[in-house]
Every structure is written in C-alpha cells, then in structure tokens.
Amino acid sequence: MTLLAVEGLTISLPTPGGPLRVVRDASFALERRQTLGIVGESGSGKSMTALAIIGLLPAGATAAGRVMLDGEDLLMASEERLCALRGNRIAMIFQEPMTSLNPVHRVGDQVAEGLILHRGLDRAAALAEAARLLDRVGIAQAGARLRAYPHELSGGQRQRVMIALALACRPDLLIADEPTSALDVTVQAQIIELLRGLIDDFGMALLLISHDLAVVGEIADRVMVMYAGAVAEEGPTAALYAVRAHPYTQGLFGALPDRLARKGRRLAAIPGTVPLANELPPGCPFHGRCPKAAPICRETPPPWASHAADHRARCYFPGAAR
Amino acid sequence: MIQFCLRRLATLCVTLIAASAVVFVVMEVLPGDPAVVMLGTEAQPETLAALRKQLGLDRPAPERYVTWLAGFVTGDLGLSQTYRVPVSELIADRLAITGPLALAAIVLSTAIALPLGLFAAARHRRLGDAGVMAFGQLGLAVPNFWFGLLLVLVFSISLGWLPAGGFPGWQGGIGPAMRALILPAVALALPQAAILARVARSAILDAMAEDYVRTARAKGLTRRAALWRHVLRNAMIPIVTIMGLQFSFLLAGAIIIENVFYLPGLGRLVFQAISQRDLIVVKDIVVLLAGTVVFINFVVDLLYAVLDPRLRSFRT
Amino acid sequence: MSLGPGFGWHRYPALIAGAAVTLVLVTLAAVSLAWTPYPVTELVIARRLQGPSAAHWLGTDQFGRDVLSMLMAGSRNSIAVGFVAVGIGLTLGVALGMLAAARRGLIDEAVMRLGDFTFAFPAVLSAIMITAIAGPGAINAIIAIGIFNIPVFARLARGAALQVWSRDFILAARAAGKSTFRITLEHVLPNVAGLLVVQATIQFALAILAEASLAYLGLGTQPPNPSWGKMLNEAQTFMSRAPLLAVFPGLAIAVAVLGINLLGDGLRDLIDPKLRRARA
Questions:
Q1: Which CATH number characterizes residue B206's domain?
Q2: At residue A26, what are phi and psi to the nearest 5 degrees?
Q3: Is A118 in Cβ contact with B215 (below 8 Å)?
Q4: Which long-range CB contacts under 8 A does B64-73 form with residues at least 24 apart?
Q5: Could you tell me which CATH class the domain A4-99+172-314 is placed in?
Q6: Domain definitions of chain A by residue range
Q7: Residue B249 lies in a domain
Q8: Which chain B residues are Cβ-neighbours of A149 within 8 angstroms?
C-alpha cells in the first residue's frame, strides 16, 4: 500500500477578510523508502502542506480533502490518535535549528522525550538511545553532548540534534521543511549527505520541502513543483529536471545561478511576484508572469497534461525549455 | 555559575553602598544640621549641643557614614530619639508584622495570578481571556488603600467577619494575629495579582508561539504536555522579572496598607517617626526598605540564571 | 484589504472610552476653576455627613462640604500633579536617554546604572525621605513622583533612540555634516515622540495613583486644598456612619486612572497596529 496519499488537499487560513485558500486541490503520493521533493517560492503553500500532513496547522486553519497514511485518513483522525502518530510514525524537521530546540532543556532530554513517550523507555534507557542517535547523526562525543544546552551548539550541530530527535522512534515518514536553508553552504552539503544515508539506513520515506532545486535534485526520487498554492508540475526527478514542462519550472531553473542552469544562458529572474491567495487571477495562476501566456490561460485553469506516464504538468503549452 | 553569582554579588554590594550613601546624604548632609530638624528652630542651644554629641554630629560626615553602615552589620543602630529604645529592637519588633504581611501578599498574589494567566492564555480570544484582561485593567486602576477601605466596609463593618484594623500581637496566638492580617494581605495582593495575571498571560502566549513548542508537538506531545514541559519554564523568565519589580511596589504598598489597617509595622513606625521628627528611625527604615528592594533584584537575577541556561555560560 | 470609509473609530474601542473619560475629567477640572455646585471651603456643620440628595448629589462630608464639589476641585489637583510629575520625568528623562543614545560609552552606562538604582526607591520611599527633612506638602510629593519617572523615560527614550540611530537616514544626515545635537533634535526625537506620548499617558495615570496614596498618608496635598487621597483619609474615620464617603473619592481615582490607561492603550494601538494584533 502507498505510504502517503494526499488527495485534493485544500487548506484555508482565517483572515479578517474571510478564509484564505493557501493550498488548492493538491494531490500526490509517496511510497515507502522514496523521497519526494516539493519545490516552490515562499508563499507557494509547501510548508502549509507539510503542516497539514502532521496535523499542526496554525490555529483556525482548516484542511479539506484526504491525507491517507497507510490507508488511514489523518484529516479525520482524533487529536489523541495524531499525538500517537506524531514523532512516532511521522516526524518533522524544521527550518530554524536556532529556535526549534527549547533553550532551557538539555539536548539529551529533548531527544529522549519522544522515546519515553512512544517507546515507554525509562529516562536512563532513553538517554542511552539518544546518545546512540546523536552519534549516528555525526555529533562527536555524543555521550557528553547529551548534557549540552542548545545555545552551546553550532547551527549545523543543532540541526543534527533536530534530525536525531525526529528519527528517535524510527518513523515511516520524515518531513523536512527547508532543513538546510538556515545553514552555511558547507554545512548544507553535510546535512544532505547525512539525510541521504539515514533514509537508506532507516528505510523511511522523506518528504523534502525546499526552494533549492540543487538540494532537491541531489536527494529526491520524485519532484513536485508548487505555485501559488497549487501543484504546477510533478514527475521523476531526472525527467522533470531534464524536460521542465511547466513554464514556471523553466523560470525556476532560469533563475538558478549554479551548475544546474544551462551553460551559456543568461541568468533570468521570473518577472513579477507570486500573487497572494486572495488576489489570484482567473485562469492559470501563473499567466501574469508567463512568457507563453495565451488568451485561454487568462480564462480557464489549465488541465493536467501528461508528458510521460508519471510526469505531468498543469499547462496548455507544456514542453521542453528552449 | 559560581562566577555569575560572584559578579552579581559584587553588583549587589556596590548598589547597597550607593543606596545607603544617597540616603545618608539626603537625610544627614543636605538638611544642614539634623539636630535642628529634629528639635525645631526654637530649641535651646544646650539641648541642641547635647543631641549633636549624642548623635555624633561633631564628627566628620564620612566617619559618621562608615560608623552607621557598620551598625547594620553589628546590629547597633543607636537609640531612637522618641522611643528611647535601640532602633534595631524597634525595627525587629515591627518587622514581625511587615515581613509576614509582605510575604503573605506575594504568595497570595502569585497563587492567584499564575493560574489566572494560564487560564486566559488557554482561552485566548475567548470570554475567559477578555475577563482576565479586564480584571488586569481594574488592578492597574484601583488604588490598594481604597481597595482596603472597601474590604473593611464589606467584611468588617457590614458582615463583621474580620477585624477592621489593629493587631493583637503574635504572643496572643497565631490565629487572631493571622485573622488581623487577612484583609491587609488581600488588599495588597489582589490589585498586584490582576496586573501579574496580564503579564503571565502574554508571557505564556508568547512562549506558546515559539518554534520549540511546535517541535514538541511534532514529537507527539499533547497540547497540555507541551504547555507544562516546554512553555511554562520559558514563560517564567519574563514573569519573574515583573514579580521582582512588583516586590518594590508591594513594599511601598505595605507601608500604605499598614496605615489603612492600623497595623504597627514598619510603615506605621516610619510615619510616626516622621511626625515626631525622629530622623534616625526614618533613615534606618528607608535604607532597610531600599536595601530589600535591591536584594530582591539580586535574587531575581539569580533566578534568571536558574531558569535560563543561556545566562549561566555567557559573560553577563 | 480596505479600511472602509473614514477612520473606523469602532476598531478602537479602548481609545474612544479612554478619550471620553479623560475629556470628562478635564472638563470637570476646568469647570471647577470657575464654578462648583458649592464652595469647597464652606463649612456648614448643620448639614454634615448627609447622604446623597437632590441638593447634594453625592452627599456631604464631616464638615458639611459638598462631596461632588470636592471631587471636582480634587480632579484639578490630580491633573496638576500628573502634569508636573510627568513633565519632570519627561524633560529630564528624555534628555538623559537621548544623551545616552547619542554618546554611548561611559555616559550611556552611567545613565543606565543610575536608572537601575533609582528603581530601588519607589515614590513612596523618596516621598518619606523628602517629607522627613522638608515637611509634608504637594510640591514635595510631586518631586518624589517626578524623580521616579526620570529613569522610566530615560530607558524608554534611550532604547527607542538607539534604534533610530541605526537607521539609514541618520547616516545620510551625518554625511551631510549635521551635528549630533541637530540630528537628535531633527531626526531622532520626532521618531520616538509617539512612543513617549504613549508612555507619558500611562505615567500620568500612575502619577495620579501615587499622589492619591501620598495624600492619603498625609504626605501630599495639605488641607484645605481638596484632594481625592486626602478625602479618603478623612472618610475612614466616619466609615461606619457614612460609608459612601469612602466610596466616591476612590471611585473617582479608579475611573480617572482606568480612563487614562485606556487612552494610553488606545494610542499605542493607533501608533503600532502590529503590536495590537500581537496582543489581541
């Protein structure tokens, strides 16, 4: 059975002007031991999608559709049931390692907390396991570091602690929301390498959210591109990176300064900005910034166009970049 | 941690010395001749000379200051002009009322404010929250001495449940003495509690919005467990700050409340001393109260370090 | 999102309520300068300790004085004390805070330590000291309250000014060769003025409370000048015979302080809508 199947996920945030639909009709699937990368600019709805899966949307937000974990709809699950799953079968790593650990507790206790909760270990056993985990995520002298406070660690070390904390109960699904964005470039590579090794070892599925195409390209089996709350393109990493069916995907690659961009091509920014969820134009949400936009794009949202069996884009004029 | 404590201790000593120096200058140097202040301008020259000699005013001011400071260590603060008893005895007697009163008020105020703040934070944007916020506004606006008068009106004059004032003394048994302190303690504590509850509410709400609380929830902790294990300890840091500040208001408040309820504590004593121009007593009590405020701030600093490990290792 | 037509007064209920109460307070004080229902110095023993009636809406006190008239005249006193005490704190405190922010270094450190230190002496304590050597009186009470206000404003002004000093337009002004003093006057002060006004409102309310406490203790305004705190002190003696006498002045203090505090909160919301959302 598919580990995670998201069907027609729509998320609304409450605002003084009425509910704001920040994610619209997103559907995707994630198999065991697979890595799915979600790519998009900030405001594209990728973080909200992740929070909806783990059931930690901000207060007042509502989610419609289905989020099936092993056939169980998490959107319908009770809070009690979600608490039993969180940190146990689904775990999450956040963007800000500096603020995501509690400053007043020792890191050992923070890693051990989930083990005590879900595995029923006593504190000593949980701390011993925490030491093994810290060692596995590459923290030197893990046993001694158990007693450290977060402020005594570097950003990279803190993110390693966050990873150990998330992996403590050997989850089936790990969600990583921009796990490297706040880190130095050299540390980023180390953390990605670590994550890659860990998903092999632990046999878990990874949902990696990033605005960084290079990071996603290195680790993901499949990639999903989100724009203004909706899925724009989805396919196997290699195919999607080679073909770039959606003009928005092409734009993302065009804005990329490094080796992934084609040689000899000028670095091009996508003109304009992501429209806010409350001022979405009719038709395709991207038409205002799209070089290929035709009259029909302004009227009716485009249907899915399949490029290959498992590669599709929501565009009237999908096709390889020039 | 030890280094941190030593640094704080040094600051404490410097502040205490500075505070006492200010009091000394204001009360003994600025007025010119304290003996004249105490006895009045019509006093006989011989009487004035005798008092000057007794107070040691014939010695230079710095020397007097040092002797006076030393008195706080040895417990010898000289004789009260009006009571004809050692000032230290006088103060010790009165402290037996002011001390328990202030302590009761702080305990009561905290015991009311923290649960209330927690309740309001949990009911954020709902009726209970609005109620606590309104209660906080009232606490800021209602003067404690008037609140004391209202308590007397209701519980003493109308209902006759509790004494309107006075103090039977501890030797008459704990029961009657405690009864005499109930209304004063409530009058002091409730307005403070209202203010503290507002502070506690915002501190808890702020901490609840932190990233590490989301991490805790992602671990599988229930909302309640995340609150107890991750929010409260962090929220205590701003709460303790305000409690430290409130303590000085509470001491000032105790001076006033003792006069509302005719309690023979330090507050009453200092007023009697003012009307009798007993400068020695006034000076000692003012230093004692200011010193207590400074000392409480020192304790608050230490508490910070206990609550927040970041402060322990940084230079601070 | 549109704010709708006009200013949208309904979105600032605290501001409206606070401004209304403050306006009533100021009006009553102003009217009392020219007229009160009865002269406040008129003692008529025959009508002492009467309850509220058509002739005396809030009754009379132990000397037969009209309580409403006393309250009106007392508001004058409270407002005057608030203005002077806040004025002392505002002028000296803001000057010190601006100096600390502009010069930094040793001066900054000295101003901050002095502030820490002044907090050791709550207004009541300074008032006790001053009264012990100079005798009781309204002026001494005002000075004591004003002294306590200095570090409050110094800290606030320093913190806000430091933020302004780090902004780009200051750099531009410096590059243009303006002196520190001129920059402070022309750029820093206008940018922190809003914050200072809000704090001044709140300190004004606190000053009224402090003055009432001191007057109640006999350290503030002296008879025959009416003051709310003094009225409460006198009412205490007659509490079993005329309980309302101890209710009205306290109510006046509480309503005035509440109203001015609400005005301060409302002004803050107006100046900083972000803060409003965070606190709401």
A1: 1.10.3720.10
A2: -90, 130
A3: no
A4: B64/B24, B64/B28, B65/B20, B65/B21, B65/B24, B68/B20, B68/B24, B69/B17, B69/B20, B72/B287
A5: alpha beta
A6: 4-99+172-314
A7: yes
A8: 309-310, 313
Q: Residue B27: its chain C contacts at CB < 8 A?
A: 129, 132-133
B271 at C interface, C-beta within 8 A: yes
Nearest residue of B to residue C123, measured between CA atoms: B252
Cα separations in angstroms, B122 against A70, A135, A188, B192, B204: 34, 39, 38, 21, 9
Optimal mutation site among B123, B219, B234, interface A, most CBs of chain A within 10 A: B219
Total tally of structural domains belonging to chain B: 1
Is B210 in CB contact (< 8 Å) with chain A?
A: yes
> What pLDDT is stored for residue A274 in this prediction?
76
Residue B241 CB coordination number (10 Å): 17
Q: Which chains are adjacent to chain C, needing at least 3 Cβ pairs under 8 Å?
A: A, B
Whole-angstrom distance, CA of residue A135 vs CA of residue A154: 16
* Residue B154 is assigned to a structural domain of this protein: yes
Residue B151 lies in a domain: yes
Dihedral class, residue B183 (left if φ above 0, else alpha if ψ from -120 to 50, else beta): alpha
A15, closest residue in chain C (CA to CA): C1
Structure token pair of residue B110? 């905290």
Q: Is the pLDDT of residue B301 over 60?
A: yes
Token pair belonging to C29: 């004080």
- Domain assignment present for residue B207? The answer is yes
What's the token pair of residue B195?
């203010």
Structural domain that includes position B123: 94-311
Chain A residues near residue C1 by CB distance under 8 angstroms: 15-17
pLDDT at position A298 is: 87
Quote the pTM value.
Answer: 0.82
**C195-241: pLDDT as tens digits:** 888 889 888 888 898 888 888 888 877 777 788 888 888 888 887 78
* ipTM (interface pTM): 0.86
Range from A135-144, B274-283, C146-155 carrying the lowest mean pLDDT: B274-283
* A17 contact residues in C (CB cutoff 8 A): 1
pLDDT value of position B316: 35
